[in-house]
């Protein structure tokens, strides 16, 4: 059975998973298309390396395909895929713990240009905004992994506390506490850098 | 934790949870009531709200990763060709059957190719060995034929020229035997004398 890509666009994630498990190739491709950007963005913010993030994203989708039969439809597909992505990113960080530490000082040079919305801003304002965002990205990157993952899941992927609990497997209290501590840590870092407006 | 003179201690985590929309209706109502009375919590709330807005605004932007346009196709193709992605027991069994058939076929083809090579080499070696033996055999045969012809010619001439050739040959043989006996007895006596 081959369906046109436009047909899949209206299908829910659950429908796509159900058809993908029966061997319909296009439906899995549509799932990848839907989640490739958020997953790669999440992984990139976790590992901080473009090439590694792309490779890892690919691995994650291959894992997802291999585990489709184990997916239970009572859970949200997005939470399930983030869980796989989270585990893969944590494994990657663990594997490269030594290397990451040695590279962390030079990570600033490996930055990609942040896309800036320039609706009605003067060049100075734009530049200031860009600088601010780079500062924030830098501070997020400097957080310990245990805090960074929660900040990224909450603020970048817009997951609820409950979803974060499902993804990370941490108790709700720990999630709340770590998120609060992470934000405090970031605020302190901003103050340390002399940025008081955040 | 923040303290206000007239209010109980306030939880920073509560403020964060309130801003994240994670307090249930009851806890939210209670917290809002508390905010009306607590100046410190109000200040903290405003600071956290500003900070979270800034975080959201930054982190919800795409980090600028350019995913290849055919990424989904590549990943789907890779995932589907990956044997570890087989999801059902029946698929595993079918894959195992295919593997067995393919391996048997490849063994058979390899065997045929190998036996062909072995037979070819054996046949070449055997033909070379047979060739060498053939040359040797021909040489020996020709040499034997030549010697027979020569001896025939010599003996034919000898027999034809002398009518007492048989008797002469017998006498010659007797002479040779007697001579060898005489020589050996001479040597025996000579040794005995030397030892005495």
Characteristic key phrases:
heterodimer; A: 198 residues; mainly alpha; Rna Polymerase Sigma Factor, Chain: A; Arc Repressor Mutant, subunit A; 2 domains; 10 helices; 72% helix; 0% strand; globular; B: 196 residues; two-stranded antiparallel sheet; 6 helices; disordered N terminus
Evaluate the radius of gyration of chain B.
Answer: 58 Å
Intertermini distance of chain A: 54 Å
Mean pLDDT of chain B: 81
How many helix segments of chain B?
A: 6
Strand/helix succession of chain A: HHHHHHHHHH
Radius of gyration of chain A: 19 Å
Strand content of chain B: under 5%
Indicate the structural class of chain B: mainly alpha
Structural shape of chain A: globular
Q: Which shape of chain B, going by the Cα principal axes?
A: rod-shaped
State the helicity of chain B in percent bands. over 70%
- Sheet with the most strands, sense and barrel status of chain B: 2 strands, antiparallel
Largest sheet of chain A: none
N-to-C series of helices and strands of chain B? EEHHHHHH
Taking pLDDT < 50 over at least 5 consecutive residues as the criterion, the unreliable ranges of chain A are: 101-118
Beta-strand percentage range of chain A: under 5%
Q: Helix/strand/pairing class of chain A, anyone?
A: mainly alpha
- CATH architecture term of the largest domain in chain A: Orthogonal Bundle
Overall mean pLDDT score of chain A? 81
Commentary on this structure:
The complex is a heterodimer of chains A (198) and B (196). Chain A has 198 residues and is mainly α. In chain A, 72% of the residues lie in helices and 0% in strands. Chain A is built from 10 helices and no strands. With 196 residues, chain B is mainly alpha-helical. In chain B, 80% of the residues lie in helices and 4% in strands. Chain B has a two-stranded antiparallel sheet. In chain B, a hairpin with a 2-residue loop joins strand 1 (2-4) and strand 2 (7-10). The longest helix of chain B is centred in the middle third of the chain and has 73 residues, at 89-161. Chain B is rod-shaped. The chains are: A mainly alpha (198), B mainly alpha (196).
């Amino acid at each position: 059975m081959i369906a046109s890509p436009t047909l899949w666009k209206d299908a829910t994630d659950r429908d796509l998973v159900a058809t993908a498990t029966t061997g319909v190739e296009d439906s899995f491709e549509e799932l990848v298309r839907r989640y490739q950007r958020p997953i790669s963005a999440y992984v990139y913010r976790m590992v901080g390396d473009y090439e590694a993030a792309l490779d890892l994203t690919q691995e994650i989708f291959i894992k997802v395909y291999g585990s489709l039969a184990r997916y239970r439809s009572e859970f949200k597909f997005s939470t399930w895929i983030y869980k796989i992505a989270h585990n893969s990113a944590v494994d990657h960080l663990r594997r490269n713990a030594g290397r990451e530490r040695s590279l962390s000082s030079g990570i600033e040079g490996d930055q990609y240009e942040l896309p800036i919305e320039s609706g009605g801003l003067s060049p100075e304002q734009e530049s200031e905004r860009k600088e601010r965002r780079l500062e924030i990205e830098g501070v997020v990157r400097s957080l310990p992994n245990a805090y960074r993952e929660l900040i990224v899941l909450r603020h970048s992927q817009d997951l609820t506390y409950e979803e974060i609990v499902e993804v990370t497997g941490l108790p709700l209290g720990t999630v709340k506490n770590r998120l609060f501590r992470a934000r405090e840590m970031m605020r302190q870092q901003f103050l340390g850098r002399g940025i008081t407006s955040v | 934790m923040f303290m206000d003179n007239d209010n109980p201690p306030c939880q920073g985590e509560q403020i964060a949870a309130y801003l994240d929309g994670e307090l249930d209706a009851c806890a939210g109502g209670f917290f809002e009531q508390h905010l009306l009375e607590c100046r410190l919590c109000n200040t903290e709330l405003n600071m956290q709200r500003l900070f979270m807005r800034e975080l959201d605004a930054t982190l919800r932007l795409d980090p600028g990763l350019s995913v290849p346009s055919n990424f989904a196709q590549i990943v789907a193709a890779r995932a589907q060709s990956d044997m570890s992605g087989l999801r059902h027991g029946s698929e595993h069994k079918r894959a195992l059957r295919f593997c067995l058939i393919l391996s048997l076929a490849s063994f058979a083809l390899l065997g045929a190719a190998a036996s062909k090579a072995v037979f070819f080499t054996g046949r070449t070696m055997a033909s070379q060995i047979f060739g060498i033996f053939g040359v040797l055999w021909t040489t020996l045969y020709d040499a034997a034929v030549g010697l027979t012809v020569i001896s025939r010619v010599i003996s034919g001439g000898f027999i034809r020229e002398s009518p007492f050739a048989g008797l002469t040959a017998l006498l010659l043989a007797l002479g040779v035997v007697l001579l060898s006996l005489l020589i050996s007895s001479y040597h025996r006596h000579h040794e005995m004398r030397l030892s005495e």
